[in-house]
Amino acid sequence: MKFFHMFALFILVFSTNISAIEVKAYPLKKIADNAYVIHGPLAQPNKKNQGFMNNPGFVVTKTGVVVIDPGSSVQIGRMVLKQIKTVTQKPVTHVLNTHIHGDHWLGNQAFAEAFPKVMIMAHPDMIKRAKNGAAKQWVSLMSKLTLGATDGTRAVIPDKAINDKHTFKTGGVEFRIYAPGKAHSFTDIMIEVVEESVVFLGDNVLYKRLPRMDDGTFKGNALACQLAIDIGAKTYVPGHGPSGDKNIIIPFMNYLKIIYREVGIHSEAGLADYEMKPKMLSKLQDYFSWSGFKDELGKHISLAVLEYERDEF
Description:
This protein is an alpha/beta fold. It contains 8 helices and 12 strands. β10 and β11 form a beta hairpin. The longest helix has 22 residues. The N and C termini lie far apart (about 65 Å).
C-alpha cells in the first residue's frame, strides 16, 4: 500500500511538472484599436515549436476580453494568457473556437482554469464531434507530434453552441458569426468583430501555408473565401500565416479553385490521381514556397478527385 501511494505521488508530481513546462512568449501584433494576434510558426506541430502553429487572437472590450483559438495545449494557452496580461488585466469572458482541429482549441484548458465562469463557444457540430471522440484523438495526436511537449493538456470542450448569423454583444463590442457549411472542416465559423472591422477566419483561409483538407471540400472552402471577402472588413486573420487585408484571402481561394478545376479536367481525360500531379505543377508555381506544399499537394489531389466524383455541388 505504501508503494502504491508513493507511485501515485510520483505520477502526480510528474504530470504537474509536464504541464508546467512553459512555451516561450511569441510577440503580439496589434491589428486594430482593441484587437491583437499572436502569429504562430508555420511548421507542423513538433518538439521545437511545442505544438504552437496557429494564430490566437483576442479583443479587449469595456468589460473583459474575448479570445479566439487559444492554441493546441494548456501550455500554449497559458502563454497566450500571459501575453493578454501585458495589454490588460480585465478578465477573459469568452473563448471562441473556430473549428474541430485541436491545434486551435486545446488551449481552452488554460482559460477554464484561470476564469471558471468563462463562456467557451463553437459550432454545434464541433461540440458534437469533440464529445464523440475527436477531442481525445487530438489530445493524443498533439502529444505524439510534439514528443510529449503538450502532455498535461485535457480537452475542455466548448459549452455554448453558435451557428451561422449568430450575433452577440459584450462590453460594447458586437461579434457576428458566419458558418459557411461545407468548408474546411464542416464545423467552421468565422468571427467578425464589427467595431474593429476585423474578421477571424479560422482555417477557412490560410496564407503562406497549405492545410490538411481531409475534413473539408475544395469547392465549399472556395465559397467560404468569397464569403469572407464579401464581408468587406479592413483586416483579416487567417488560421495560419500573416494577417492583412482581403488580398491575403485571394491566393488561397485561387489555390482551391485551381486544384478542383485541374482535377476535373484530368479526371475527364481518364487520368488517375497519381498521374495528375506532374501536369498540375506548372499551374501552382506561386505556392511552391508555402509551408506544407510538398507534404499536402498529393493528398489534396486525391481528395479533390473523390470530391469531383461525388459532385456534391
